Amino acid sequence: MRRAGLGCDIDVAILSAGFGLVTEEQIIVPYDITFSSMGKQEIQAWADFLDIPASVQQWFEAKGDLNLVLLGDAYLEAASMDASWQIATPTILFCGSVAASRLPDWHNVRKVTLTREDARRLRQGLVWIKGYLASRLLERVCREPGFLHRLFDLHLDLIGELAGLSEAGKQLSLLYPPAK
Which residue pairs, CB below 8 angstroms and at least 24 apart, start in 25-28? Predict the structure, then answer.
């Protein structure tokens, strides 16, 4: 855990195709492997070898203020998430429509489905948008602790709110200018 310059503590964990679930304190050697280039059976075999499903499930069972998950389809496959999992901490899950449709509806998890329309609206790729929205969300939660409670208001256009978009979809401000 590190003390963020924004007034809150942040734990970072990354699901690595090379090493499994790693924390920011772990030192790892450079590697060149991704689940995105593997088939379903290869993903499952490699994930089992790295003990990914068990370590990710344990991470979700830990109590905290907020889990923020950026999830791609191949990494969802590696984690083997299912309805039997107990998710102890309120969780925001940024994912694509395929991942969103495959995930169960847990009571304290908000799936924020990113679509091609969001990519057009923000004029960026979906992978970039996940990272961008995550950084904006963390910044906002740290600066406005009350925002944490609004994250689960399903009437809140979370993508628009974080990206600085008005109700009509007009861009007001972006941390990084959109690609031209």
Answer: none
**Do residues 76 and 85 touch, judged by C-beta distance below 8 A?**
no
pTM of the predicted model as reported, rounded to 2 decimal places: 0.80
| DSSP-derived secondary structure for 142-172 | HH-TTHHHHTT-TTS-HHHHHHTB-TT--B-
From residue 108, alpha-carbon distances to 50, 91, 105, 153 in Å are: 27, 6, 9, 11
Tens of pLDDT along 128-147?
A: 899 899 989 988 888 887 88
Residues β-bridged to residue 111: 93
The residue type found at 70 is L
- H-assigned helices in the chain: 40-49, 52-61, 73-79, 97-102, 116-122, 126-143, 147-150, 158-163
- pLDDT tens digits for range 42-94: 999 999 999 999 999 999 998 888 888 998 889 999 999 989 999 998 899 99
Work out the angle at residue 17's Cα, subtended by the Cα atoms of residues 77 and 104, and round it to the nearest 5 degrees. Answer: 25
